[in-house]
Amino acid sequence: MSIGLLDELFDLIVRSDPDNPILAIVDIHSCATLVDGLVTELKIPSSNISYLPALISEFDQLEVLNMSNNTLVELPDEITYLQRLRILDLGMNRLEWLPEDIGDLVNLHYLDLRWNRLKTLPTSIFKLANLEYLDLFFNGLSRLSPKVSGLTSLRELNLEQNLLTQIPEEVFHLPNLKRLNLRKNSLRNLPEEIMNSSLEFLDLSENHGLVVENEQLEYLRAIDCEVLI
Q: How far apart are the first and last CA of the chain?
């Protein structure tokens, strides 16, 4: 059943862009990993794909989906039906928004959204309690919601090269956060709660005008956190 669905999915992708020369040389079967005849991994990076069909929801055993380095502007809402998904790589596309119910992907551990065009994040994304890695490098985010506190398993957060002027104190209460990249934003100061963190790495470089208090630096050094300013 999954083999037939795979062919149908790829046919819809090709029909959406029949002049895409890259798709002509893609072997969709080599892009998929099957277990007991069911697709558990699907990796189609760097193929200039601009359309992901709603049919993707039928791959209900999918655990890994890599659509990085394509030209996707949006995702079908049906992608949120993939309840087994653990790894989702959508880096280097043209996404301007995410499905409102992306928080339904309750088993997600790794989410790569770097190098897109996101200006806001849906509130439900902060319900991803199993998420350990979140990459938002080079988007257009000007605000991060305090609801980020819901990402209780998060170990690494990359917010480099966005438009942030402040970082919510809730980030520094995340119990498992070890690596935080805030490079190339527009931060002016840091909340006092940074002295509650257990960070191992913090990049604050190229935030021109940022003032870091001496006691904050002393705390970070005391916990052996590598700090770049």
A: 54
